[in-house]
Specification:
Blueprint lengths: L1 E5 L6 H9 L3 E4 L6 H9 L6 E5 L6 H8 L5 E7 L5 E4 L11 H17 L1 E2 L5 E4 L1 H7 L13 H11 L5 E5 L8 E4 L8 E5 L6 E3 L1 H4 L3
Parallel strand pairs: 1-2, 1-3, 4-8, 5-9
Antiparallel strand pairs: 3-7, 4-6, 4-7, 9-10, 10-11
The structure holds zinc ion (ZN).
Zinc ion binds next to strand 8.
Length: 213
Amino acid sequence: MILCGFAGNGLSQESREALDEWNAEVLDFTGDDYAYWQALCKRWGSLEPLLVMEQDHILTPKILASFACCREDWCCFSYKYAAPRHIIPLPDASGSTDWAAKAVTVFRQKANTAAEKFVILGGLGCTRFSAGLQRRIGSLDSSARILWDVVDNTLFPVLKAAGYAPHDHGQIPHEHKTFDLCLHPPGDAGTVEWHYVGYPTRYKVGPDWWRDE
Ligand SMILES: [Zn+2]
């Protein structure tokens, strides 16, 4: 079983076509921060391997072949952290986005630095769990309210505690940076909120984060 969830306009045409070719289940999580975890819980524990792809990766025959001939239980391609494709400032009370010039630059710089620096192994960008692993872990708690962006961080320690480690299948490019985020105008004390397009949760950063000293 191949599962891919996406939100907003995050699924590229190329990703979609590759997923369709392999009969993946493609789910639209737009507007629901908790749908990813629930979808995973629902499919976890079947009698077949579960392959999870995220919207900004391309499923290729090479990936499938690499997983198919591996006897490990928790198989992952690693990838660099992605920087957002677009950073969209929202207008302030006067209808202006002039406030945002510096914030967009700083967000972009920090995101690019992180994207260059961090390689993720054990995230859910391109991962295959064996049927045996799912059975041994047992059912996941579908009543838990797990935000979509910490589904991997939630699952990782559970697998580690059960004695599993991610099996590295090499690095795949993370070129399809198909997520966008919106910056909200500064609130009291200069804090800026932002959210991923397609997901309602807002994150907050203080003025010391987004303004240059
Ligand atoms: Zn493997």
